[in-house]
């Protein structure tokens, strides 16, 4: 009897590669308008971040936009730090396993697009309405 290959959860680098593909597949105009945004993959959000958002369960946050969104930026402000989109691997994998109705790439794309929406100054309700209209 042959032994099955061990199944391993996607690593941080694997998720980063999936996120990069998802970003590269967005329309060119969206990518251009997104501008300078760094993407960072971590296992979980830091405890201070969770506490600041009032989230007790670290699995409750799959992604986060950090920075001054494009609507609130001003040419008179000092140069802002690079905006960041965080994707949290373990909560994403947990949601993917629980849902079972989307591929991992689809879920990563959803979270990435959601956080880029915040970069454009959109609220959760705005983003949900756009996704519902899709």
Automatic annotation (TrEMBL):
Superkingdom field: Bacteria
InterPro entries given in the database record: Zincin_1, Zincin_1_sf
Protein name (record): Metallopeptidase family protein
């Amino acid at each position: 009897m042959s032994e099955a290959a061990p199944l391993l959860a996607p690593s941080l680098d694997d998720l980063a590669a999936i996120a990069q593909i998802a970003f590269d597949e967005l329309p060119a105009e969206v990518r251009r308008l997104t501008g300078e945004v760094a993407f960072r993959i971590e296992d979980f959000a830091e405890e201070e971040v969770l506490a600041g958002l009032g989230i007790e369960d670290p699995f409750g946050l799959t992604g986060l936009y950090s920075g001054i969104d494009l609507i609130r930026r001003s040419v008179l402000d000092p140069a802002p730090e690079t905006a960041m989109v965080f994707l949290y691997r373990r909560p994403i994998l947990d949601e993917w396993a629980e849902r079972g109705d989307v591929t991992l790439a689809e879920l990563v794309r959803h979270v990435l697009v959601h956080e880029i929406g915040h970069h454009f100054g959109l609220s959760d309700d705005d983003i949900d309405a756009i996704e519902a209209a899709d």
